[in-house]
């Protein structure tokens, strides 16, 4: 697969969800700025007919990203290796078991977790069928975070800071 962005087909069922705010340090600002909209909009997860993916089999960051890109391509979720890798290094330094226990999400009982620091409600809402339901599973975490980023920002490639 090439490193160019994957084109996402029009998905009318896709809607924005910000369950308890954003990730990492921007959580407070994101929660204040968007929380009123989140309550008014219905929740929507992955595309209506997601394509199942194999279980995570890789053991390195490179393998996890490449596995996630295959799942993303099958499900019309845009993103590139470089965009995913850049965000993972900023969010978790590549630790799939990283947990943020200090920000507003943690204070509210929903700490950001995994490679791309997803909060559990956002992971559940943007989970892609066929991937693990474990938030710290590297491929499931990447795919759910990229699904969220696609819905909110167009692609994970457009994210250059805490989201």
Describe the structure.
This protein is mainly alpha-helical and 163 residues long. It has a domain at 55-158: Lysozyme (Orthogonal Bundle). Helix content is 41%, strand content 0%. The protein is built from 6 helices and no strands. The protein has helices at residues 27-40, 61-74, 81-92, 104-107, 120-126, 138-153. Helix 2 (61-74) crosses helix 6 and helix 5 (120-126) crosses helix 6. It starts with 26 loop residues before the first helix and ends in a 10-residue tail after the last helix.
Structural class: mainly alpha
Largest sheet report: none
Mean pLDDT: 77
H and E order: HHHHHH
Descriptive key words:
163 residues, mainly alpha, Lysozyme, disordered N terminus
Summarize the structure.
This protein is mainly alpha-helical and 163 residues long. Helices cover 41% and strands 0% of the residues.
Write the layout of secondary structure elements.
Layout: H1 27-40, H2 61-74, H3 81-92, H4 104-107, H5 120-126, H6 138-153
